[in-house]
Amino acid sequence: MADAPEDAQLAALDLGSNSFHLVVAHQVNGRIQIVDRIKETVRLAEGLDDKNRLSDLVAERSLACLERFGQRLKNLHRANVRAVGTNTLRRASNVTAFLESAEDALGFPIEIISGREEARLIYLGVAHSIEDNFDRRLVVDIGGGSTELIVGHGFETDLTESLHMGCVGMSRTCFEDGRIRATDYKDAVNRARQELTPVATAFVEAGWDTAIGASGTILAVQEVLAQLQHTHAGITADGIKQIRKQLLDAGHADKVSLPGLSADRSAVFPGGVAILDAIFQTLEVDTMQATNGALREGVIQDLLGRVQHQDIRENTVLDLCSRYHIDQKHGRRVRDLAISLLAQVAVAWKLTDPNDALLLSWAADLHEIGMDISHSQYHKHGGYLLNNMDLPGFSRSDQSQLANLVRTHRRKFPVDEGYSEKTTRLAVLLRLAVLFHRNRTSSPLPHVAMAAENRHVNLMLPTDWLEGHPLTRLDIAQEADYLSSIGIELLTAESA
Fold first, then answer.
1. pLDDT by residue (tens digit) across 219-260?
2. Taking the CA of residue 466 as centre, how many other CA atoms within 13 Å lie in the half-sphere pointing to its CB?
3. What is the C-alpha separation between 262 and 19, in angstroms, rounded?
4. Which 8-state DSSP code applies to residue 290?
């Protein structure tokens, strides 16, 4: 079969706390066919100090890896590549500086996703990697810095949780210098059970038919057990006990010699096994099967949806509109004008990234979300809601930008928030679109022409139109004052 064109390739990169995983795939009749996988162990979580600063040594190791991955991705279209950072990058206090260097090394943007979004994507990757028998599933992923638990059915999640424990962190905390003693193992299991206890009841009550494990630790456990027991029955509590005995007998990570266990995993294996042991005990799991599907496969599937215009983020926005009783007809009118203004100034204001239009559209749809709480200061309520709720499909940066746009869509522009120039410009477009639709009617507006250059904005309206709309004229004058506080000049002229 001939190679698919480059623009038909999709790639997902998972910047995990233990390993970086790159997956490249072709679209074949709307389905995913993996054509390349690259994995490198970087131990990102090891680089965090007691102030959550990422060390220079681990940062350099990570950047070198990303340069190599960047070579593989060099000819792929920007829209067909998605790179996501997880627990360690969520925690790193100096993540902004690291991301700048990381994106330069990779050649593509990197998103930091929330724990619950990570859980959703893991489930999606698992669901696409196994036969859909309509069973309810418990999916478990023990990463380097976090552990995700999901209950779902088909391709839908019912319950998601991300816990702050992973094989790298647990191994570093409880098995200091690689020593493996019975007291150390017991301490690790107890720590894991403490993390699990607040969510255990909800998961047990949700119930499931099958338990499925994903990613490194669980795959390694299953492989070890298969070779020790010469069976493919999966993972059982007795099997975990057998591995535990082997670890304790070894007494040190350097001396662990288990069939099927790679050398680069042995140092973090004890912590991962202890977490899995705690999960079996706390959630009363009998048997678990491991699968190769995980976060990167979920990212690929999610990316395919975006390419095919089946973006989960659109569903999230629609759900919010319904849940918070938003006037969707009004939102759509504001959206249409905002996008019309964007089209006129996109080049001048460097807003040509397709994501810019998407974020502006969704901000228009959701700009009144805060009204469900109170009309007074509803823009602030809306910004707070969007900043602090789980938004499936949204990265942390996109979620923050969406919240900022809603927060700034009316009244005084918050001058001390340190918004980026891009966010500021998108906010101006949204503010103007809201202003012109203050009457909330379906009566057509005149053509609103807009031109922009740096921090100068010109609006052009038909002759005498403002004379017949004194309230709008006053609103524009007030808006000019608001924007002047952030150094933007707004002028109005009449067109023939």
1. 999 999 988 875 567 899 999 999 999 999 999 999 998 998
2. 15
3. 13
4. E
d(CA 166, CA 163): 8
H/E run at residue 142: strand 136-142
What's the whole-model pTM score? Answer: 0.82
Residue 172's nearest CA partner among 49, 21, 42 is 49
> Are 269 and 364 members of one domain?
no
Token pair, residue 319, equals: 């759900």
Q: How many C-beta atoms lie closer than 10 Å to residue 480's C-beta?
A: 16
Phi, psi of 494 (to 5 degrees): -100, 140
Pair 134, 269 in one domain: yes
- Is there a domain that residue 461 lies in? no
3-class state of residue 438 by DSSP: coil
Q: What is the C-alpha separation between 399 and 389, in angstroms, rounded?
A: 9
First CA to last CA across the chain, in angstroms?
59
| 298 touches 130 (CB < 8 A) | no
Tokens of residue 121, six digits = 């994507």
Long-range contacts of 31-40 (CB under 8 A, 24+ apart): 32/128, 32/297, 32/300, 32/301, 32/304, 34/297, 35/9, 36/72, 38/68, 38/69, 38/72, 40/65, 40/68
pLDDT (tens digit per residue) in 52-105 = 999 999 999 999 999 999 999 998 999 899 999 999 999 999 999 999 999 999
Same domain membership, residue 243 and residue 176: yes
Give CA–CA dist 364/333, Å, rounded: 9
Tell me which residue range forms the domain holding 39.
6-113+298-304
